[in-house]
């Protein structure tokens, strides 16, 4: 019997077994690969789970930090108001009231600004209002006096003091007489506050000039910032700002600020020629004929807002024989008018006979605080006695009258050294300067002109009036 068929069958069965074994091996390898993949996926999943958990915890921490930062940013919100005194001028009725007018102006402006914020920027809740008005005080005083807005330069200084004392965050800053200094200060301060997270709005009260137009145009280049900036219009904006003013909110306070500049009546009264003495001189020796109601100032009354000269008559002078150093008009007298004179040095400059160093500082300060009427006590009659805010009832001693005369001399007379009014109670030379010295300890801040320093006090001639 041939074994070949059996051998073939054996080989066939062996081949099948071999295929079966190979299939088993392949299946086992596949299971191993799947198990390895599963383990990797499991590890990845576990890592992702831990990562997500960490991310969630970190996100919660970040949200807490953001909430804390937001709380800090919302704390003590404020708006800042930067005003150029050339374009923002308080109305005459505030200026003429001196210190009381300053307080009233500060309160009215604060109230008006709060109302504006409620109506236009309601998202800003209970902000503090920081006000900085940059002003050339000396130049402004001269403008007010020359225009007849006030008659006593001290009124403006009293107004500024009252304004600065009233609101904790409001102040008028004297920038001196450097041209465009207010513009420079406003631009620099503007940059400081613009990016302050606590500052929710910057108000700019500018004058109509090319420098502000360029500055505001540059600000428009950053669209995200323009919503943080508003303009304050006092004196009506001119054509210089036409191109940019439409891009900003504009706040107006017509009941507080003037819409037009103060127009001087005359220029340089003590230089080449003197104007009529009827144009509201600061030497209030003249008695008003049918005087209109006068406004109140810190040292005496002020005729303000008058564009025409006043009819005046000069009362007779009664010299006090109680002191050789000063002259006081105590009351009007009948009879002939005595000869009046002005004492001058060899240069023809007026000399006030008053030794300020001999006056006790404490007595000087005490009398200042009494708010006495200079007109009444030194000239014998107040032109607005019924409406005057100052004291007329106090009884003064000879020494107190002497000191009051010195206090009046601390306010510069606008006619300076050329003043020829023998009854003038104002100062014609700086009381702090010494002969030969062209300055005093106040330096550039002195209210007296440079020519009023170092005056020769030796009297060589008398000009009879």
From TrEMBL:
Residues 279-289 have a biased composition (Low complexity). It comes from the Eukaryota. The keyword Protein transport does not apply. Pfam families: DUF7923, zf-CCCH_tandem. Gene3D superfamilies: Zinc finger, CCCH-type. A zinc finger (C3H1-type) spans 367-395, 429-456. One of its GO terms (molecular function) is zinc ion binding. Coiled coil: none annotated. Keywords: Metal-binding, Zinc, Zinc-finger. Residues 279-324 are annotated as: Disordered. Residues 367-395, 429-456 form the C3H1-type domain. This is C3H1-type domain-containing protein. It comes from Penicillium angulare.
């Amino acid at each position: 019997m041939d074994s070949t068929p059996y051998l073939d069958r054996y080989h066939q069965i062996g081949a099948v077994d071999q295929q079966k074994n190979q299939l088993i091996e392949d299946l086992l390898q596949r299971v191993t690969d799947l198990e390895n993949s599963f383990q990797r996926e499991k590890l990845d999943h576990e890592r992702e789970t831990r990562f997500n958990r960490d991310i969630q915890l970190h996100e919660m921490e970040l949200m807490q930090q953001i909430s804390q930062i937001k709380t800090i940013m919302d704390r003590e919100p404020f708006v800042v108001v930067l005003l150029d005194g050339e374009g923002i001028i308080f109305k005459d009725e505030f200026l003429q009231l001196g210190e009381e007018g300053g307080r009233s102006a500060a309160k009215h402006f604060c109230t008006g600004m709060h109302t504006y914020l409620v109506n236009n920027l309601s998202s800003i809740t209970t902000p503090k209002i920081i006000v900085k008005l940059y002003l050339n005080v000396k130049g402004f005083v001269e403008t007010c006096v020359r225009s007849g807005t006030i008659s006593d330069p001290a009124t403006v200084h009293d107004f500024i003091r009252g304004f600065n004392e009233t609101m904790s965050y409001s102040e008028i800053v004297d920038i001196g007489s450097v041209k465009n200094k207010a513009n420079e200060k406003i631009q620099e301060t503007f940059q400081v506050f613009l990016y302050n997270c606590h500052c929710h709005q910057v108000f700019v009260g500018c004058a109509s000039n090319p420098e502000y137009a360029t500055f505001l145009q540059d600000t428009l280049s950053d669209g995200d910032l323009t919503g943080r900036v508003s303009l304050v219009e006092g004196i009506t904006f001119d054509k210089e700002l036409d191109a940019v003013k439409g891009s900003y909110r504009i706040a107006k306070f017509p009941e507080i600020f003037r819409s037009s500049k103060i127009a001087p009546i005359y220029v340089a009264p003590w230089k080449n020629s003197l104007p009529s003495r009827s144009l509201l001189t600061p030497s209030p020796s003249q008695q008003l004929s049918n005087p209109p109601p006068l406004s109140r100032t810190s040292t005496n009354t002020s005729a303000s807002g008058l564009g025409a000269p006043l009819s005046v008559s000069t009362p007779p002078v009664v010299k006090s024989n109680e002191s050789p150093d000063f002259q006081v008009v105590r009351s009007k007298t009948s009879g002939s008018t005595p000869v009046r004179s002005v004492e001058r040095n060899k240069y023809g400059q007026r000399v006030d006979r008053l030794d300020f160093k001999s006056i006790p500082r404490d007595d000087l300060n005490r009398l200042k605080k009494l708010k006495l009427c200079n007109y009444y006590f030194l000239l014998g009659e107040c032109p607005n006695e019924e409406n005057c805010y100052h004291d007329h009832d106090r009884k003064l001693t000879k020494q107190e009258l002497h000191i009051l005369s010195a206090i009046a001399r601390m306010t510069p007379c606008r006619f300076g050294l050329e003043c020829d009014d023998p009854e003038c109670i104002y100062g014609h030379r700086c009381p702090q300067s010494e002969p030969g010295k062209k300055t005093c300890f106040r330096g550039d801040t002195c209210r007296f002109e440079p020519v009023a320093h170092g005056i020769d006090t030796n009297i060589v001639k008398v000009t009879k009036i």
